[in-house]
Design a protein that fits this description.
Oligomer: heterodimer
Low-confidence stretches of chain B: none
Number of domains of chain B: 1
Structural class of chain B: mainly alpha
Helix content of chain A: 40-55%
Largest sheet of chain A: 4 strands, parallel
CATH class of the largest domain in chain A: Alpha Beta
Low-confidence stretches of chain A: 18-28
CATH topology of chain B: ABC transporter involved in vitamin B12 uptake, BtuC
Radius of gyration of chain A: 23 Å
Order of helices and strands of chain A: HEHEHEHEHHHHEHEHHEHEH
Shape of chain B: globular
CATH superfamily of the largest domain in chain A: Nitrogenase molybdenum iron protein domain
Number of helices of chain B: 12
Chain lengths: 301, 267
Amino acid sequence: MSIRLTAAGLAILLVSATGCSTASKSTASGKITVVAAENFWGSIALQLGGDHVTETSVIINPDTDPHAYEPTAKDARTIANAKYVIVNGIGYDPWAPKLLAANPVAGRTTLTVGDLVGVKEGGNPHRWYSPADVHKVIEQITADYKRLDPADASYFDQRKTTFETQTLAPYDQLVAAIRAKYAGTPIGASESIVSPLADALGLTMLTPQSFLKATSEGTDPTAGDKTTIDRQIGTKQIKIYIYNSQNSTPDIAAQVKAAKAAGIPVTTVTETLAPAGSTFEQWQTTQLQGIQNALAQATGK
Amino acid sequence: MWDYPFMVNAFRAGAIVAVLAGVTGWFMVLRRQTFAGHSLSIVAFPGAAGATLIGVGAAYGYFGFCVGAAVVLALATRGRAGHRAQESALTGTVQAFALACGLLFVSLYKGFLDGTTALLFGTFLGITEGQVMVLGAVALTVLATLAVIGRPLLFATIDPDVATARGVPVRALSVVFLVLLGAAVAEAAQITGALLVFALLVVPAATAQRLTARPVPSLLLSVLIGWVVTWAGLAAAYYSSYPIGFYVTSFAFAGYLLAHLVRWVRP
């Protein structure tokens, strides 16, 4: 009885598992469909592609913590329809490669920023805070566009020149200016997102590396690190304190309060584009100006 | 919806898991081993987290931990069907330890653990062709084994004393079934998440057994209900932004309420 029954179950099972095909649909359109896992890369990709691409970013809500992002069916559809996909990698968006693997499409190009700049899993994933890496990504996106759409190669070259020499000029100038004036200034920060920028600006990060990483990854910081940070703030060893307002824990809130009480200028950065509608360069320059003002106030230079 | 390979894979995987869970769950409910099944599903969580931690595919973690825990439970209670109290106490102990391990793995993992929520409450996005094949192969093995032991297992379940007297290896069957249950839970957990495995394992079986007492129709009904709620859940999750676990569980629960209503209206 149950033998026959189970055999019937097996039969339906086999039919269901083999009965449908996974042939994928091809979308015919003159433009390159670009999907970026995060909107900071998406903003750059859109400006480089101009009106020869359509761009969609998956993580756009400033209230979403990208580390803990769970993709929706809509995201899976968006990625499935893409011709060109930009993911950050370095364990920052592990859901993205999964969605890509579940939906193989012939002729799709994927740019993984971590692989491009040579940072492995476990390293600092916040590459968009490194001006050098941002420029590497720009080079690669344009090269990929030209390969996907060779007819418009000169258009993409021209977009890139405009973007690098004009659009990003205030950003590059601010980085250089802060570096020239304030290099070597000791600073404190809430998480590892600040580290690549601090390196580029020549600022000396005094906050223990393990604390920065713990905040970024949402794990518990050690008591020793917290004591060190409290001492650095109390004795004003750090000149300014930079924190990620999108990833603030009670520990961070307490540090911000202590820094303000000690008269240390506090400034913020965010994980993704804020406000949501701004461009990469608007967002970054505003934050860099904040850092510049804080440094000026702290050092009197 | 069918244009996307990821959705086709999800429907395939959903069908495989629903059929397997429907059959094993039916035996589980009949054998009153729901609590053992619950604990095995909890074990799926440290399994997946541990596999991520050491860098192997989550599927290995699911199968390794669930089947491993099933063997431990089976050997520790040595299949003594009469010792339900002892079995449930041991099961509870294993479950608590497993949850603690899962928590440890999540915090040990250096980097961002990909969606703890997904491990606990399920996701249907990102199922690859290879995973469907693995799910299918395991399901075939479990169902084939059940086909062989199905009749004596049913006998041993309904009347263990008479079965023993007739020479049916009641204890051995109990061990084998627990291992099969472990494998079935490991499969279901990959779609519904560790905590909502019951949506597919218990609810369809419980609903079917409410509707009819005859073994064959109720087993078939259990499979059918599981299949329908899974596919309906997938379709609903595709067209909205809410998680699959919620839909599958709610549809299954609605079916259960409906079954009660049917019994009540038609005594």
